[in-house]
Amino acid sequence: MLEPSNNNELPAIPDKRYFTIGEVSELCAVKPHVLRYWEQEFTGLSPSKRRGNRRYYQRGDVLMIRQIRALLYEQGYTIGGARTYLARQDSIPDNAGSTVALSQILEELDEILQILG
Q1: What is the pLDDT along the chain (117 residues), one digit of tens a residue?
Q2: What is d(CA 75, CA 22) in angstroms, rounded to the nearest whole number?
Q3: Rounded to whole angstroms, what are the CA distances from 86 to 11, 18, 36, 79?
Q4: 7, 55, 65, 108: which could join 47 in a potential S-S bond, CB 3.0 to 4.6 Å?
Q5: What is the pTM of this model?
Q6: Is the dihedral of CA 60, 63, 79, 84 positive or negative?
Q7: pLDDT recorded at residue 41
């Protein structure tokens, strides 16, 4: 999934249950219209919609968006290539997902140490 080095330039994800499209846009450095387009292209990305079709993303959605961003903008994948890559990642046992979660936790702990340190 996402390399920890790619996350260093993006802000840490706050400990919240839901994020608005504006918050996700800032957390992932991607404009809102791009997020809406990616929802059409990547089936795994589907935020909940409530009142007036407002989108609410969860932490897993934000991590997926960061991964898509890294694939497209940093690694040079096309949208079709990124879609294929993500589909292949979904077929890998869940240990890969826990590795990404662990790297995110380690990154956040490093930030806490810097604040305290």
Answers
A1: 444 445 568 888 898 899 999 999 999 999 999 999 999 999 889 899 988 889 999 999 999 999 999 999 999 999 999 999 988 887 665 555 566 677 788 888 888 888 887
A2: 25
A3: 23, 23, 18, 10
A4: 55
A5: 0.70
A6: negative
A7: 94
Report the number of distinct structural domains present in the chain.
1
The enclosing domain of 55 has a CATH number of: 1.10.1660.10
Residue in the block written with tokens 């869940």: 94
Contacts of residue 42, defined as CB under 8 A and 6 or more positions apart, other chains included, come to 64, 68, 82, 83, 86
Contact 108, 116 (CB under 8 A): no
DSSP H or E segment with residue 110 = helix 95-116
Lookup: tokens for 21: 């499209």
